[in-house]
Structure formats: C-alpha cells, structure tokens
C-alpha cells in the first residue's frame, strides 16, 4: 500500500472534476489530487468532436477535445497532482480512499473529497427491450467512442432509440461516416435532447423522427437484422396494428444517463431518487460531512457550461472545508420538487443567503410561472417564457434568515400563467 | 491429424464433462462445437443450480445421475477451481393445500436418500429469509449454486490441458459409417472417429438423423430469466422455489442467489417450435417479475440489469405432461454411436455422473488405458476483486497489468482479460472474456470495458477488429474502419 494525504481529492477527471480541482486550488487548498480511471483527462469530452461547448461560458464555440484541453492546461500549470489510469475502489467515512493503478494500491487520506464520477448510459435492460440478444446493440456513447476515439465503424444501417443529445449527435456523425440512419425512435411525444440538436442533426440530414414510438422487439440471432417499432398511446401502451419492421444491422440506444454513484452509496451517502445523485446543500456538500458532489454524478446536466459553473463552486466549498472547521448545522430546510417539477438541486439549505438552484421541468410547457413556496408563503414568483425538460432551469433565491429559525420545507413548483 | 478414437459432438456441459473424463485415458479425443466457445447453448442459460434430487422419481435416470452428480461436485470444484456454494433451498407452500406437495417432495427426496429434508413453519423461514412470504417450506440443505458456464469451461479447459482437441465454430454437417469408422463432415474439414458421442443438446435429433431415423421427437421449452443488480443481493440467502408446476414438467419460477451476488428470477416455461428462438418477451419479463414479487413483496422495480432465455431439450410434449426421462444409449443399428437425448434439468448436476456412465459404455467398445500424465487440477487464480490488499499489491508489483482496471463495475483487471483470452481451448469472443473474467457483466453491461477489451484483443492477440465477435461465429461487432481511418 502506498500512503498519501491531500487537502482535496477529486474523484473523476472529466470537466466537472477538472473544474472543481482548479477551483479548489484557487480557493486555497494546497494539496489537490485528481484521480481518473482513463489514460486521458477530460472524461467523455475527447470523444465529443462536435462543437457547441463553451458557448454560454466563454462565447466561443469549441469542440469537446478543445474545451477539455483548456481546463487540462490550467490544471497542469496549477500543480494539481493528476493520477491517471487510477480507479477508486472505495472510500470510508474517515475520508480514506483506496485506489489502484499500475504502480500499486494507494491509500489517500483526504480532508475533503469531491465526487465527480460522471454518469453511465442506460442500457437495453433499463427499459427492458424484448427480443434476441445479438451483436449490433450499442449505447450511443459507446458507439461514439468507437468511431471518434478508435476509428472503428460499429454499424452501417442504424436505428437510434431515444432522442437524447448523444443519440441526435450520433445520428449526424454516422451519416458523415456513410452509414444509413434509418430513424430516431422516441417514446415520448417530444424530443428529449436540445432543440438545436434536432435541427442540426436530424432535420438538416432528413433523418426521420418517430415520436410516440418504441422498439417492441429486436430480431437477429447473431447480428441485429431487424427491429420492430410501434406507436404508443398516452399511457405508453403499444397501439397494435401500428407495428413497423425496419431492417437494420445496428440499434443505438440513447436512453438517458444514470449518475454513477456506487462509491457514494457504499459509504452510505444519501441519494436523491429523482436526480440519481447525492442529496446536497447549497455548498454541494453531501450528507457525509466533507464530501462534495458535482458534475453528472450529482445531476445529469445538458451543457458543460452550466455543469462547470456548479463544479467550480463545489471545488471552492471543498477547499474551504479543508481549511476551516465545519460549522454546526442545526437547522436545515429541505427543498422539494412540487407540481410540474422533476427535481431541484440543492435539496438542502443549511444557511440563509443567496442560493443558486437548478431544476428541471416535468414536461415541456409554454409560458409558465415558477413558484417558490416556504411555510405557505410565496418566496418567489417568476414568469418563464417556456420550460422544457431538456433545458435545466437556473434560478437564484434569497433565503431569508427567518426561514432558518426552524426546520421547514421549501417547495418549487411550475404552474400555468 | 483428422483421425480420432472418440468424437464428441457438442461442447456443452455434457460434452465437456465426457471430454474431461476421457482425457484421463490414452485416447485421441475431439470435441466439435458449433458455437464460438463451449457452453454456448443451454449450458450457459440456466439457473446454475446443483440440484439435490427431490424432484425426479426414484427409478429414473434423472434421479440417479442427479444424486450421483451432486455428490461429485465438491471434489470437482476443488480440482477445477470453479465456484460452488451450498446455499440450500426452500420450496415454499403459499397455502395449506400446497403443503401436501411439500410432503410429496419430501417423500420422493427420502426415497432418493436426499439428507436433511425438513418441513418448517413460516416463522422459521422468516428467521432465515425475512423477505420471503410463505405458509410453510421444505428445507433442502444439499442444493447448491455454481456458475454453469464456468463449470463447463473448467471441464473443457482441463480436458484441453490433457490433450483433448476442441474444434470451435465447427458444425457437424454430415455423418456416415464406413466399415468401423465414422466419417464426420464439418464446415472445417472432414474427420474420422471410431466412436461418436452425440451430446449436441438441442441438436441431438439433427445429429441422429444424419445416421438413422430418429425414434423420438423434441419439444423445446423456453425459459426466460431476469438478472438483478448486486445491490439487492441481501434480499435472500438461499434459493426460494415455489412448488413445481406439474402440468409442464418444470420446477417453476424461483428466486436464486448467484455466486456473484446477483439475484436470478426465472425461468418461465413456454413450449416453442423453433429450438433456437432464445428471445425474451415483454409479457414473460413482466410475469416473471410479478411472480417473484408474490414471493418477495419488497422486490424493487428498477433492479433488473439483464434478461436472457435458455431452451430446455424435452422429449415429452406439453400434452403428455412435459416429463420424460433421459435417454443415454448406444444406437442399436449403429454400434459405436452413443446418444444422449433429452438432457434437460437436472442436466448440469447430472453431467459428471453421466460422463462416468459414458466411460463405462465406451470401455465396452474400445480398450481404455489410464494415462499417468493426467493433470486433474486446473490452475485457477483468485479474481482481483476477491484478493486481499496485500495479494493485490504483490501482483501489481510483479506485473503492472494487475493494476489496470478494465471493467469498472466488476473490478476486472487487464491481466485477467489477457488470462481469459489465453484459455487453452482458443475461445476469443467478447463473451469468452465476459464469462471467464466477468468483464462486462455488471450494471453498465459493457459500456466502459468493451473498448478496452477490443484494444487488448488488437494489441496482445493481433485480432483484426472486423474479426471480433460478440459470442457466435457471425456475431461480428464492427464493419471496419471509419472513412479513411486507420488503427
């Protein structure tokens, strides 16, 4: 066992981890260690060769690798210890991390930990697609890695299930590489990816979109030969007679992402079932003191720009946590998603003051009103021109100190005008 | 060399067990397997249960080989290093009426000399299995679990280490008897053998009909399974079975722990026409979950990480009750042609005992001489994830590939993937790695590790990406490089 100690250890070297590590360092943490399981830094960004990264943050549209490079350069200059090809096996309540890489087993004693493990893709079995189990079924991200990182073509005649951003971007990417993209199938009545991707990836290339449809069977003993899709009603039940058989050799799954929190779960950190990420307060601290969470393992973000903004704050909190004693939290306010809202982050408020919330709408809606209610009192009422689950909603709320005198709930709701 | 004394058709658990038993003798033995690896049919897709012998009537071959086989398992596991745990099982009665069935099973078990059987009350079950809801239960301590594919691979690999030749992706397309030799036609050339053992599982009838008119009919019966995430492994400690479904000659949907901590729900029972139709269906997946939920009400909804099905090779139609005994016999018209027909559950348990029986039959046909060079032990290293920190550190120091985690969900290292790909039977599909090392079997289902396994196959084994297969001869993963792209 090789022993180390650090002020802040960041688990995961994707955009969130990099941003958090840089910010922790800037905020005064002396010894910052960043751990990543890949042989490269930047997480998923190096395989995202399309542009659009950094527009909100810097006004310049970059590709994924360019965007990642920007952060990696800064991190390198800042003397952050970056351990690549290093997998964290576990950490405990004393914040002792066990990690492994080719130099051996490492035990790292941390004053604060930032979780930035990212997310994984939902698989065929998360939505239980019946049929054969042939080759040719890929999650969109895996197919993206093969094409963009390894120059390998996973398919020629492709159906894409799910209209998340990765799926939409892959539709265009496969088209560029000469594959036939036979359609994007989405069970919901609306696309779940960003509207700009619908235009730029599907409409511009005449790729058909089947809304209210699902794949009801995969056929092919060895390689995918055909998928059967069918229309669904409002209750998601198949409407018989609407089945279409589509001959293809590949089915790409873009079914959404699951925050990766096995490490957090193992140590008993509370997970919010609606975000899939740890429950955090406004400082991004989880229910285990000294452990912070950011990036896609906290909640699945739609753009990296918003993600790094939160990650920087998490890094800053972790740095402060490692230099000053933790304050005693006596009163906490729980934040609950109300009508029309899928989830809200943070889920806990431990101190009054300005708090930045991110939330997601339950379903797409026209002009709406966002209400924040505390103790039956309206704390905030804001008109939104529209709300779409694909776009995270960010909002600042001033939490008055009166609210923090006794424990109460704060509810965030979306209503019609 | 294309001449063998014994040719075994089928590299399932039966063919592999026979191959391993034959490898103790001075013989040239070949195994022809049409899949890309051994255990690619029913031997892979079953419950992985080492049965006790309470389910088959005393006079049957099923009972005899099941009981004999059960007793052989521990020694085999020690020699061959495949996992085995005697977790025991509860057959549960949901009501007073079903208790009669428990008593009947207990009686059959006792007449089959199955030890330790007892019928216990709800409260006693609750003590051991707090999540299980039942009226009474029959406790069967001598039932165990194994990994059926690793058991089969262990048998086959040990046989290969003792000079049995395995021909993978080799389908027997024709059989002819010429004088005292069988001529065997395959897609990989022609072979000759003095004896042919038909252990082709669901293809047993096809193989028989190459030489003679089959006097039996096959009734393939599909069973679907669901696999639950390891996070829920604490729901049960032992296997939980309902009382058997008599009308279909099957044991019913049960809930079993697996060696690796996943929970298995299944199998369903559906007679189908096409013996290769291993589809999973929407309806059955929902039903399995519902049936399991009746036994464990707290079963979580989002726990499923995989689903699969396997096909039972039955010799009895559903109309006749679905139950028929095994047929293990030498053809009357074709001496030297040994057939194993209808080897369904408890076939996995019975396999080692059946193999002994086949040796007895073969010894009447040709002379068998023990060879001194037989190595009964198969080297098996602990998995990285099972090792102590000290063991892990020592190995990494020796070879840094032990420090490179390739599968993040199951913590499988690069060294283990390389070891899996270096197996003595030459299996090199993605599934060959998966079933040997567990890479790709976790909750992300290969999302992270597939690219690393592909890289290892290219770098260490010089396999071209267009030749990489998922699991069977035509299950290629890729169509080559991007436009203008290279490695």
Secondary-structure blueprint of this entry?
The complex is a heterodimer of chains A (417) and B (487).
Chain A: E1 2-11, H1 15-26, E2 32-35, E3 51-53, H2 55-58, E4 62-63, H3 64-77, E5 81-83, E6 87-91, E7 96-101, E8 104-115, E9 119-121, E10 137-139, H4 140-150, E11 157-161, H5 165-176, E12 180-185, H6 195-202, E13 209-210, E14 213-219, E15 226-231, E16 244-247, E17 250-253, E18 257-259, H7 262-266, E19 291-293, H8 304-323, E20 333-337, E21 341-345, E22 348-349, E23 353-361, E24 368-374, E25 377-384, E26 393-399, E27 409-416
Parallel strand pairs in A: 1-2, 1-8, 2-5, 8-19, 10-17, 11-12, 11-17, 12-13, 20-27
Antiparallel strand pairs in A: 3-4, 6-7, 7-8, 9-18, 14-15, 15-16, 20-22, 21-23, 23-26, 24-25, 24-27
Chain B: E1 3-9, H1 13-22, E2 29-32, E3 49-50, H2 61-80, E4 84-85, E5 89-93, H3 96-111, E6 118-121, H4 122-128, E7 136-140, E8 144-146, H5 148-161, E9 165-167, E10 172-178, E11 181-186, E12 189-198, H6 204-208, E13 219-228, E14 239-241, E15 254-257, E16 263-266, E17 270-271, H7 282-295, E18 304-314, E19 327-330, E20 337-341, H8 347-363, H9 389-398, E21 405-407, E22 412-413, H10 414-421, H11 430-437, H12 449-461
Parallel strand pairs in B: 1-2, 1-12, 2-9, 5-14, 12-20
Antiparallel strand pairs in B: 3-8, 4-8, 5-7, 6-7, 10-11, 11-12, 13-16, 13-17, 13-18, 15-16, 19-20, 21-22
Helix pairs in contact in B: 1-5, 1-8, 2-8, 10-11, 10-12
């Amino acid at each position: 066992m090789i022993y180390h100690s650090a002020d802040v250890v960041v688990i995961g070297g994707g955009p969130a981890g990099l941003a958090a590590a840089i910010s922790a360092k800037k905020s005064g943490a002396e010894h910052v260690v960043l751990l990543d399981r890949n042989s490269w830094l930047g997480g998923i960004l190096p395989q995202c060769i399309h542009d659009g990264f950094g527009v909100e943050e810097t006004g310049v549209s970059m590709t994924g690798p360019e965007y990642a490079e920007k952060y990696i350069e800064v991190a390198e200059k800042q003397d952050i210890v970056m351990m690549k090809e290093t997998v964290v096996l576990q950490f405990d309540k004393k914040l002792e991390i066990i990690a492994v890489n080719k130099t051996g087993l490492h035990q790292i004693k941390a004053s604060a930990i930032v979780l930035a493990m990212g997310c994984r893709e939902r698989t065929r079995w998360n939505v239980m697609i019946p049929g054969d189990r042939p080759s040719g079924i890929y999650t969109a991200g895996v197919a993206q890695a093969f094409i963009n990182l390894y120059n390998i073509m996973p398919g020629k005649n492709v159906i894409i299930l799910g209209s998340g951003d990765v799926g939409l971007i892959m539709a265009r990417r496969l088209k560029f590489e000469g594959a036939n993209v036979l359609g994007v199938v989405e069970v919901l009545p609306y696309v779940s990816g960003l509207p700009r991707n619908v235009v730029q990836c599907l409409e511009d290339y005449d790729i058909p979109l089947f809304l209210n449809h699902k794949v009801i069977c995969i056929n092919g003993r060895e390689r995918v030969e055909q998928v059967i899709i069918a229309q669904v009603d409002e209750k998601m039940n198949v409407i018989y007679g609407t089945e279409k058989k589509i001959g293809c050799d590949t089915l790409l799954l873009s079914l959404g992402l699951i925050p990766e929190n096995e490490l957090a779960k193992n140590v008993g950190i509370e997970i919010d079932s609606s975000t899939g990420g740890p429950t955090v307060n406004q400082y991004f601290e989880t229910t285990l003191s000294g452990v912070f969470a950011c990036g896609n393992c906290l909640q699945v973000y739609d753009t990296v720009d918003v993600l790094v903004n939160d990650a920087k704050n998490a890094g800053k909190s972790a740095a402060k946590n490692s230099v000053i004693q933790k304050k005693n939290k006596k009163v906490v306010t729980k934040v609950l998603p109300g009508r029309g809202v899928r989830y809200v982050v943070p889920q806990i408020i431990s101190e009054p003051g300005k708090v930045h919330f991110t939330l997601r709408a339950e379903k797409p809606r026209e002009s709406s009103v966002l209400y924040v209610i505390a103790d039956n009192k309206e704390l905030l009422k804001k008109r939104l021109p529209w709300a779409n689950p694909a776009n995270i909603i960010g909002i600042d709320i001033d939490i008055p100190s009166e609210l923090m005198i006794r424990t109460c709930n704060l509810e965030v709701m979306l209503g019609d005008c | 060399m294309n001449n063998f004394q014994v040719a075994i058709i089928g590299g399932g658990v039966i063919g592999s067990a026979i191959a391993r038993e034959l490898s103790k003798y001075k013989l040239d033995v070949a195994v022809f397997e049409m899949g890309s690896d051994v255990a690619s049919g029913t031997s892979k897709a079953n419950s992985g249960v080492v049965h006790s012998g309470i389910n088959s009537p005393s006079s049957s071959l099923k009972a005899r080989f099941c009981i004999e086989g059960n007793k052989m398992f521990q020694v085999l596991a020690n020699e061959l290093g495949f996992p085995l745990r005697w977790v025991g099982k509860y057959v549960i009665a949901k009501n007073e009426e079903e208790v009669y069935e428990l008593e009947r099973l207990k009686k059959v078990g006792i007449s089959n000399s199955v030890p330790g059987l007892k019928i216990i009350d709800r409260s006693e079950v609750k003590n051991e299995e707090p999540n299980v809801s039942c009226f009474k239960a029959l406790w069967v301590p001598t039932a165990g679990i194994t990994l059926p594919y690793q058991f089969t691979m262990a048998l086959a690999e040990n046989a290969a280490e003792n000079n049995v030749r395995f021909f993978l992706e080799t389908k027997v397309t024709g059989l002819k008897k010429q004088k005292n030799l069988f001529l065997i036609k395959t897609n990989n050339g022609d072979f000759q053998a003095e004896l042919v053992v038909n252990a082709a599982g669901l293809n047993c009838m096809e193989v028989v009909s190459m030489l003679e008119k089959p006097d039996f009919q096959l009734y393939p019966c599909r069973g679907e399974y669901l696999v639950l995430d390891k996070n829920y492994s604490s729901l049960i400690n032992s296997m939980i079975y309902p009382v058997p479904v008599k009308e279909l000659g099957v044991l019913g949907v049960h809930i079993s722990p697996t060696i690796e901590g996943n929970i298995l729900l299944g199998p369903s029972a559906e007679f189908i026409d096409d013996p290769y139709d291993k589809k999973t269906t929407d309806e059955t997946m929902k039903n399995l979950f519902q049936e399991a939920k009746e036994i464990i009400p707290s079963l979580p909804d989002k726990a499923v990480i995989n689903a699969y099905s396997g096909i039972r090779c039955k010799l009895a139609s559903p109309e006749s009750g679905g139950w028929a005994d095994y047929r293990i016999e030498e053809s009357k018209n074709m001496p030297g042609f040994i057939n194993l027909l209808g080897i369904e559950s408890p076939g996995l348990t019975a396999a080692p005992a059946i193999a002994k029986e086949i040796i007895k039959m073969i010894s009447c046909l040709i002379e068998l001489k023990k060879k001194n060079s037989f190595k009964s032990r198969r080297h098996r290293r602990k998995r990285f994830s099972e090792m102590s920190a000290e063991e892990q550190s020592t190995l990494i120091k020796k070879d840094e590939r032990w420090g490179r985690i390739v599968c993040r969900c199951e913590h499988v290292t690069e060294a283990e993937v390389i070891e899996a790909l270096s197996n003595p039977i030459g299996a090199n599909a993605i599934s060959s790695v998966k079933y040997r090392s567990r890479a790709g079997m976790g909750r992300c289902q290969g999302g992270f590790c597939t690219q690393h396994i592909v890289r290892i196959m290219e770098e260490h084994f010089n396999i071209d990406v267009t030749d990489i297969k998922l699991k069977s001869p035509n299950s290629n993963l890729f169509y080559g490089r991007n436009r203008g792209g290279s490695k």
